Amino acid sequence: MSKNLYGQDFYNNQILGSLQSAQVYLYHLFSICGVPESAADLGCGRGAWLATCRDLGVKRVVGFDGEWNSPGDMLDPKIEFHPTKLEEPVHLDESFGLVMSLEVAEHLPPEASDTFVDSLSRLSDAVLFGGAFIGQPGANHINTQLHSFWAEKFFDRGYLLFDLFRPSFWDDDRVEPCYRQNTFLYVKPGSNLYHSLLNHGYTGNRDVRFMDCVHPVIYLGLLNEFITLQQFAGTGTQEIPLQQPQAAADDNGALSENLKSIECLTEQAEAKIGLNQLDDAAEICRRVLAREPNNPECLLRLSHVLLMMKCYQECLHHARHFLRIINDVSFGYYLAGHAARELGRWQKSRSYLLRAVELDPSHVFARVLCCMSIFTVCMDQAEAASLSRAYAAELDALIGSTPLDTAAQIDNAVVGVGAMAPFFLPYLGCDVKSIQAKYGDWICSVMAAKYPQFTQPLEKRLPGDRIKIGIVSHYFHNHSNWKIPIKGWLEQLDRQSFSIHCFHTGEISDLATESARSLADSFLQNSDIELVATAIREQQLDVLIYPGIGMETVTLKLAALRLAPVQCSSWGHPVTTGMSTVDYFISSDLMEPSDGGEHYTEKLVRLPNLSIWYEPAYSNLDSVHTFAISGVEKHDVMFLCSQNLLKYLPQYDFVFPAIASQAANARFVFIASLVPELTDKFVRRLELAFRKLGLNAADHVTLLPQLDPSDFLALNARADIFLDSIEWSGCNTVFESLPFNCPVVTLPGTFMRGRHAYAILKMMDIEDTIASSVDDYISIAVRLANDISWRKDISGRVHRNKHRIYRDRECIAGLEKFLKNVSGKNSVAVLN
């Protein structure tokens, strides 16, 4: 690299792309690992990445590059520049928090590769590295290599690989394609940055199997260049594996046959889709695209097939390819938006969906997804309030643009209802009754238009035989709704007085499913709305119960129909349905506030105590293994914070640093979301909250990846204190901490969903750790952390009293009384 490969024009054009890419990547990295004190860049160019480091708070930045650069050429005058021959060893008597080298190694002679990696490893334990992939075009690319080529060299020097950027930014147009394809982070175990990554749920490895892939943008550029060369090459060119016309006289005939073949394949693909043979349809589409890579009709069809197959990454790739060719088709944006949503790229999804609705306001499915995709982890209360208003506006627009005058419009609306339920709305922390009522009225009107035969009121059956109860759920499997409340009710209702008929609308079957099947008088597993609705009607039930409505759309649609004389929801999803077709909401007397009835459109039923029959979570604690948690030391007081991150409202972020400021050994352990961008926002919030009190979040916060059941069990065994989330309390998670006698700190919320732990503690007669205010909540947590004897006393009381919440007959008797009353069968025949 002895001479300048690029002129001034190159640098001027390159700087903008590098700056934006650097801003995206470095912000992401520093939000996870913190801002390093110093950074260096080998092959820094004009210093775009170093200037971004400075903007983000790095105090010292040092650049190395050829002698054609100078300190005066740097974008930031604070950059220390050293003219250097990078193909030779770089020595500096200091190390850096981070060293970078991006799109540089390809310009060095291949024989200098080891020397260059040695230079990088001498300067830092953390290397942000990217080299041009083999075959990647560019000026004087003399050393393009597979990514695994460089990875092995870093592995040999004790580094581990973190593929930190590609999963999150592969399709992010803010980042230049070369950086999206080529950038990896290499970190030595034991370093501060390594521990920060582990604490945030990222795991290093030496697995190179998935490294060597080409970004679609770069691949298409190469492919188009190849095709162009072949089209204009002379007859003397080397034969290529694409079918070529043998002579000019045959050109038209060959083209005609090729078009006929593509047309035939297209028809075959359409026929396979009609037969629901999606794998075959996808393969046919791929064959067409092998001949015509830019065939828009086939790209769109393949994207749709892949979405139905739940192959979301490939669907998004082909949808984006289609949109690069034709950018004004609503369905293309819908496909991209739906796939991006399923991949956890919520912000990108919303931008696609907004464009889909803009192009076609009548696309109900896109409108519903767009409406429901508003919700996310909020940075502050103002954002939560803004999202709530935006949702209300989107819902009004959805309802206003969904006519029900023709059969086609009705079918379109029914499909739209199936797009997504407003599951995340209550996570904003607000009263949802009025907005749920509006949503419920809309769904009921749509479903009534589609299925008028399921809208008429039903007569109650005459007394004389057992009361027939129906339970409809998507979760007759090992799920929180099965644990609470389905399992206990199904096992404990008096079967001499009641027959129970179960309707499983989900696809999953496991041991819990088989248990439900064996306990039920009848059991149907199917998700077809009309089939299930007909089956429910044919059973002539007295009472139909939906243990939780709003988490998915099959039971949502069914609940909008009148299938039994009395229909009930319960707190599997602890929010009002807003539906006129749901008569009662079965809840817990201990959990409901005094004004609880005002929070529901249904009539509130307060069953005694917790309202559920619950068995101890674990029967054999001897099998619990030791779970080593990175960043959690033996002397740390571990606060378990195992709720969905959406439950942690931003206005209460300050409680964590407030506790840590008074309990030096406090360590808060959270579990990362399956959606990376939600985790990233939550981490940024906590870092800001800790920084306001002069603390470093990394010293007190650990984020774990999603855990399997055995590791989650071990995590509960290690916990010292269960710190409940405020305004949306834990329930299953609290129950699962109790076998280990873990003290629980809670602050009862405004709504029933914020009072689960409160009710559990009340029933155990442990009120010492029920806070009366946020300040009291902090004080209780601090005392538990610092006063070991008090913590042991509370733990002992949990051990002695937890039996009170298990196997509660009183709530079962209350449920039976309610069912007899509403069915009009207070005296029923008892079977012998």
Structure, described:
The chain is α/β, with parallel strands linked by helices and about 850 residues long. Helices cover about 45% and strands about 10% of the residues. It folds into four domains: about 10-220, Vaccinia Virus protein VP39 (Rossmann fold), CATH 3.40.50; about 250-450, Alpha Horseshoe (Serine Threonine Protein Phosphatase 5, Tetratricopeptide repeat), CATH 1.25.40.10; about 450-605, Rossmann fold; about 620-805, 3-Layer(aba) Sandwich (Rossmann fold), CATH 3.40.50.2000. The strands form three sheets. It has a seven-stranded mixed beta sheet, with helices on both faces. Mean pLDDT is about 85; it is low at about 1-15, about 230-260 and about 825-830.
| CATH homologous superfamily classification of the largest domain | Vaccinia Virus protein VP39
Radius of gyration (CA) equals 31 Å
Sum up the overall morphology in one term.
globular
Helix content: 40-55%
Reported by name, the CATH topology of the largest domain is: Rossmann fold
Name the poorly predicted regions: 1-14, 231-260, 827-832
- Please identify, by name, the CATH architecture of the largest domain: 3-Layer(aba) Sandwich
Number of strands: 19
Give the number of helices: 30
Strand order of the largest sheet: 3-2-1-4-5-7-6
Give the total of domains: 4
The fraction of residues assigned to DSSP E strands is: 5-15%
Alpha carbon gap, first and last residue: 94 Å
CATH class of the largest domain: Alpha Beta
Q: Which structural class best describes the helix and strand composition? A: alpha/beta
